[in-house]
């Protein structure tokens, strides 16, 4: 038995094919757009560069402590 998602994808692919056969490019494009949205094609996130200005003082202090710990471990080796 197919899942709801599989049925949606299959239906949209069918609509796309029929729309192309009928020359209805608007409907074909809309079907592909909905498929792309379904697989989060448009939500590819671009990672924002982290800045110290984005952090709270406590976060910065915690990170500095973590760096000191890592450096101390490396110098012991």
Helix-strand layout with pairing:
Elements (H helix, E strand, L loop, with lengths): L3 H19 L2 H14 L18 H20 L1
Please report the number of helical segments.
Answer: 3
Unreliable stretches covering 5 or more consecutive residues: none
Mean pLDDT: 87
- Rounded to an integer in angstroms, the radius of gyration calculated over CA atoms is 25 Å
For this structure, the quaternary state is single chain
- Give me the secondary-structure category: mainly alpha
Amount of beta strand: under 5%
Distance between the termini: 58 Å
Order of helices and strands: HHH
How many beta-strand segments?
Answer: 0
Major sheet size, sense and barrel closure: none
Structural write-up:
This protein has 77 residues and is mainly alpha-helical. It is built from 3 helices and no strands. The mean pLDDT is 87.
